[in-house]
């Protein structure tokens, strides 16, 4: 079963508030080649179920697997065999290795676990780790591997995979995640580290320049830190820097929908005296406009604004992998062509037909990715006098939150199609 079909079960369970069934289903993958992916999915599932301790364990194991992959200076024998097997079949035989944008989300979601358990210091450690990988990706962009395909062939493939490129054009990198920078800034601000908070609010603003809440945060801290020159650079007006004594802040972080799944496309691969059809992953679905969270707090209506367009981050991550995919597919075509020739020479027409059938049936694209991630991540922010307030998320969904003086109350809202998960914590 292709991975998106499996993950659809997790998404449906989240949408129906039946998380236990999704956890049970994903547990079957914890020991196999999709173990990293299963830990990521389970970390997300346990977290939305409110079981932060078990979510923490799952993300720890996922992040440890990421670290282990980093430490492999050379391929082990087993990994080499897996790579060789993949050349005569498909990339699904290779253990899932994730990508950097998923790793950044894993650190951020682990930070949410620590926030929920009252450990802001540990949460900040996770956010620093997330930023380490964001900085590493920004400072070191590896050139694509050389391809044996002609320029015309490369151009043809890029045209056929055009929907992925179009979706990726909405971001500049798969790792520039304003949602991550914003949560880090919140934690720095909550712990009195205003210079660090200001730096990360600015980084969030550089990625989401039209977000008025982030604009206000940068203006507020620039005023407080007396960075008037930077106010001019960002074209912002000074804001009141200090809260009144009996006033607190409510920050609503909103995660909406599900990131799209990869789909499979079969493309012809030219080879002397023959043609092969090879499978590639791509994003077929066009960009979907993000939906803001419209809510009422203390009878004031607010709409959230976009921080991270995860669907475009995922597409950019795949776009970055396409040059390597083309190289592997070139090698796969060479290997299959050689097997076909040997079968024809040594076994005659019957064996040749069998090998040809195997080559066709074994050709499947690797469609794996972390599919319980949200489609988009958004923010809204408001200042209120200390007290208890009703929060109305829909005509049938109401809760209450506590605002403490001179403190940030963090509200996390996750909408998974038909169900909404809400949690709040003081920072």
Automatic annotation (TrEMBL):
InterPro entries: TPR-like_helical_dom_sf, TPR_rpt. PROSITE patterns: TPR. It comes from the Bacteria. The keyword Lyase does not apply. The keyword Transferase does not apply. TPR repeats lie at residues 178-211. Residues 135-154 are annotated as: Disordered. This is Uncharacterized protein. It comes from Agitococcus lubricus.
